[in-house]
Amino acid sequence: MTDRLEALLEKIKMNDQDSIFVTSTANFYYLSNYYTDPHERLIAVYVSKYHDPLLIVPSMEKEDAKAAGWSFEIIGYQDHESPWELFSEYLIRNDAVPKSISIEHDHLTLERYNQLKTILPDAAISNAKEVLANLRVIKSKKEYTLLKQAAALADFGVETGVKAIKEGATELGIIAKIEYELKKQGIQQMSFSTMTLSGNQTASPHGTPSMKKVEKGDLVLFDLGVVFEGYCSDITRTVAYHSIGQEQETIYNTVFEAQKNSIAASKIGTAVGEVDLTARNHIEKAGYGQYFTHRIGHGLGIETHEYPSMHSSNQLPLQEGMCYTIEPGIYVPNTGGVRIEDMIFMTNKGPEILTKYPKELQIVD
Question: pTM of the prediction?
């Protein structure tokens, strides 16, 4: 059994539970080493204290799962078959019907919950979210290596985008250039929709890129990441095109200092909330507090946004092996916005910044 499956089984036993039924794509991949997009079909890793782990996948994916390293039993089902009925038959055949089962409350649909409840009417059902989050939050050396490689490719994406800025270039055109060059590097997918915003568009933290042309005096914001061997990266940089106004420059420098302060505040044992508040207090003192409208960051790994949420009330202490973002921003309507984001990996020597693209104010000619 793999270290991850063994760790999960130990957690199950410690919590006096019989079993866990994992269905989300990210947690399925984390436990099975097999990445798949199931579309509407069910996939699951079932771990029980009564027998070896079990995988449930469409029949057409059984061989792929084995090739990825799964060495235990697999229930493969055809499209005309019910995976729930096959799972029920498996439990009965092995005399291993659980008295308790843990599921992902934030993922399993009501329809699938009812299917599970039908075949296990007497089982106590609990939420697996915390158990799985605590397993994934501390990254291994291999995960660190993959995250570092994903970060380097994100750096390349920003560099490509900055080089593509020119008079008449559109936001979507720049995005096309970024993604084309990353495809040439072997990247199959981005970790989220690539964002290039310019001018007043930058004042929306989650703005929608368009055919707007970059104009002289615009701030240009890039937010992007890639998936590299199952692990995500995330970076944001903001540059100015041709020139920058005085208030825009003040906003930039305020965000830059806030981010540096938050990175310096990242120490083992420090509460996540303190990292957020360090940046927030700096921005508030500069008079822009109302324009910093989101948390300082989020955990990062198999998913772009994962545990922990880096908000001001989170008292979770930072630990060695955590990977997260620090991304303060100021967004002023009719003036523009600035966000600077890096991937941070917590080591026993302090925070390591995985994304390396320069952050000093850059005015692109």
Answer: 0.95
